[in-house]
Amino acid sequence: xxxxxxxxxxxxxxxxxxxxxxxxxxxxxxxxxxxxxxxxxxxxxxxxxxxxxxxxxxxxxxxxxxxxxxxxxxxxxxxxxxxxxxxxxxxxxxxxxxxxxxxxxxxxxxx
Length: 111
Known about the structure:
Blueprint: H1 8-14, E1 17-22, H2 25-30, H3 36-56, E2 61-66, H4 74-77, H5 81-90, H6 99-110
Parallel strand pairs: 1-2
């Protein structure tokens, strides 16, 4: 990934750059019981990404947000069997995503 030479102002001067934020489907469409703080912070990230895209987009800087579904992490490892099954029943691939899946998506968005 490309990082700014010093800060975002340098990207503006160069008229190029890509910012990829990683959100969550919980903050964009569905919410989740017991995760109001998590969901609201991810929803805030959506708003920030949209605003920043409008702010720096005209200067040649792309701003995107990836909002994955459930990913195999410490946060999802505590799911009981019934909850895990309910989630997997809604996922077309029949599996939770992996951190590597997200890394690939970020690299693709960066291109």
